[in-house]
Amino acid sequence: MSQLSIVLVDDHTLFRKGLAELLEREGAIRVADITGDPAQVSGLLKTHNPDVLILDLNIGGTDGISVMQDLRGEGFNLPVLILTVSEAEEDLARALRSGANGYLLKSMEPDEVVDAIERAARGETVVAPGMTAKLVRLLDTKNNSASSLMDTLTQREREILTHLGKGESNKAIARQLDISYDTVKLHVRHVLAKLNLSSRVEAAVFVVENRLMSSGAEKR
Questions:
Q1: Which residues of the chain have pLDDT under 50?
Q2: Which pLDDT value is given to residue 150?
Q3: How far apart are CA 165 and CA 104, in angstroms?
Q4: What pLDDT is stored for residue 215 in this prediction?
Q5: Judging by beta carbons within 10 Å of its beta carbon (0-12, 13-18, 19+), is residue 5 exposed, middle or buried?
Q6: Which residue, of 16, 87, 92, 146, has the greatest Cβ tally within 10 A?
Q7: What angle do CA 56, 17, 28 make, to 5 degrees?
Q8: Tell me, what's the pLDDT at 151?
Q9: Contact partners, residue 99, CB within 8 Å, separation at least 6
């Protein structure tokens, strides 16, 4: 298996150098570059074309979410993982709703971060294990009307939702359902809109919380 490349952005010199060394020791990750300056990120992405970008939540007088949004505006669509010490629900919600592919904590073990990077590169959305309960609480109000919301989905959209509940990427879903990648993307967009969800990870939690994994999402 070829190494995944990342660019790491964090304004704490010791932390970013230490994390870069730890990740490369794991063997599956190649750290293409590191920086503590948000202004350098765009240039580094153009130079290295990494598989995943890791951004500190608070960096250089701004935050990773703002940096990510600026990069999206420039046309960079690679997976972005927010890495932070913050366990605040509002930070988690803002990151995911702004399009981050994951929310990781700096207290995670290196192998857990490597796993998150690999999953993000496959198109999955990942959240630090310690943040799962907070994510569930964020979704509580949305899940109250789960039954009525499910009634708005077509049979194909219910199938898509089931696969989202398993954390599968669009490519994996397309392969299993024998439909095109673009068709899956369209269905995912419709599912999220109909269920009033903001991300794939919210869809996955929706499935688990409403016990749809086994059969509920398959019924007509």
A1: 214-220
A2: 82
A3: 20
A4: 42
A5: middle
A6: 92
A7: 85
A8: 80
A9: 68, 69, 72, 80, 199
Q: The dihedral of CA 73, 87, 49, 169: what is its sign? A: negative
Pairing between β-strand 62-63 and β-strand 126-127 as defined by DSSP bridges: unpaired
With a threshold of 0.85, does the pTM exceed it? no
CB 130: neighbour CB atoms within 10 A?
12
Q: Where are the domains of the chain?
A: 4-129, 144-209
Strand ranges inside 47-190, DSSP E: 52-56, 58-59, 62-63, 80-84, 102-105, 126-127
Length of the chain as a residue count: 220
Closest to 20 (Cα-Cα) out of 28, 36, 31? 31
Q: Look up residue 120 and give its amino acid.
A: A
64-120: pLDDT as tens digits: 999 998 998 899 989 999 999 999 988 988 888 788 889 999 999 988 999 999 999
Q: Are residues 169 and 123 in contact, defined by beta-carbon separation less than 8 angstroms?
A: yes
Architecture of domain 4-129: 3-Layer(aba) Sandwich (3.40)
* CATH class held by domain 144-209: mainly alpha
Rg value, the chain, Cα:
18
State the Cα torsion 97-88-16-74 to the nearest 10°: 20
**How far from 52 is each of 29, 142, 188, CA to CA, in Å?**
10, 30, 22
